[in-house]
Amino acid sequence: MLTPGRRDTARGLGMITRLLPKVLVVDDDPSIRLFFREALQPITAHVAEAADAPGALEAIESGDFDVIVCDVWMAGATGLDLLAMAHQTRWDVGFILVTGEYQIETVIAALRMQASDFLLKPVTLEDVTRSVTGAFERLVSMRQARVYQGSLEVSIQRRTHELEVALSELESNYQMTLEALVAALDAREHETFSHSLRVRAYTRYLARRAGYPPALLPTLEQAALLHDIGKVAVSDSILLKPAKLTAEEWVEMRKHPTTGDEILKRVPFLRPASAIVRHHHERFDGSGYPDALAGARIPLGARLFAVADTLDAMTTDRLYRKAPGLDAALEEIRRWSGKQFDPHIVDLFLGIPPDTWTQVCTEVECATSLPK
Fold first, then answer.
1. How many other C-beta atoms can be found within 10 angstroms of the C-beta atom of residue 49?
2. Angle, helix 192-209 to helix 343-350, in steps of 10 degrees
3. Which CATH superfamily hosts domain 9-150?
4. 173 DSSP 8-state letter
5. Mean of the per-residue pLDDT values of the chain
């Protein structure tokens, strides 16, 4: 399929720096062609001729022209036909139409097809010079704009890639920071890391079922993973005690949510998770700590986490007791609905098949099943 004069992009853009245009004159009158050749010679790099549209197509196919000066009325295909082809196939040229018969319909049609200019015969030397020079200057401007746009797109793509790499590295560094924080606590309380991973998995699953905003899920997961980070400030005699704590010891233990809040607030990318960490021991009826918040005043993430944390606490062994099991956890959560837990979240939780939690637990490689 012939695509006359359609320029290879690199070839076309290489013409931008040319000081003088290459022009093709298309007219079925030899004397008119001669006039244009002589008129254009001082202001062009080269002038070629064609007597009709087929000859013009052949010339365009074999040469790199900047401006076409074409008669409107020729035998066979007209100048408008050639302009239409130039417009449809996006020739990289300026196109000037010349006619001895002024018709407003022809002018409108030419303008709609983005003709560079419209000259009425007889034309003067000044008309030719002005028209061709103006058409070439506009063409050069458009070529420069394309080059700029192309370079801008390349620059944007490169910078986008660089940003993606930087964000990936930043995300990796964030993950390493999270793991380091949890590992620091796990060095003292060896069950902490596995407990945090399980609670994060349970919280994430429950949050998705509850329609938690996807954009906020990473913050919720960070809070679930780091909820006990404040325990780094609790003494070993309390943290590792293989028995129930005394009233005085509980006072110290209950400081860990506020300590965790303070720690996370010092790390900019963890700051959004600090509120959930602070309030993960609040109770729906307002009897929790540290701020005795109640109902919807407790962050939704903390209300979701409370159920997930209880599920894990009752399905894993602790230093001072064996795990009560999954059935006991379900019953405990049901019994404390509206008191310790948000009743809407409890209803959602109880509607999930119990085996689902075993599957979620298995996915974090914590166990093959939860104790019944």
1. 18
2. 90
3. Response regulator (3.40.50.2300)
4. H
5. 83
For the entire predicted model, the pTM comes to 0.54
42 CB-contact burial (10 Å; exposed 0-12 / middle 13-18 / buried 19+)? exposed
DSSP class of residue 77? S
Exposure string over 211-232, b if 16+ CB within 10 A, otherwise e: ebeeeeeebbbbbbbbbbbbbb
Whether residue 16 has pLDDT greater than 70: no
Structure tokens at 341: 């837990």
- What's the mean pLDDT in 241-257? 89
> Tokens 């940003």 correspond to what residue?
163
333 contact partners, CB below 8 Å, separation of at least 6 = 307, 310, 311, 341, 346, 349, 350
pLDDT bucket at 217, cuts 50 / 70 / 90: very high
100-115 confidence digits (pLDDT tens): 777 777 777 777 777 8
72 by Cβ neighbours in 10 Å (0-12 / 13-18 / 19+) ranks as buried
Beta strands in 279-357 (DSSP E): none
3-class DSSP state of 174: helix
pLDDT value of residue 116: 80
Question: Which residue from 283, 231, 225, 224 is spatially nearest to 259, judged by alpha carbons?
Answer: 231
Please give the CATH architecture assigned to the domain spanning 188-363: Orthogonal Bundle (1.10)
For residue 86, give the amino acid letter.
A
Domain boundaries, the chain: 9-150, 188-363
Separation between Cα atoms, residue 169 and residue 46, nearest integer Å: 56
Main-chain dihedrals φ then ψ at residue 101, nearest 5 degrees: -120, 110
Task: Give the C-alpha separation, 115 to 92, whole Å.
Answer: 12
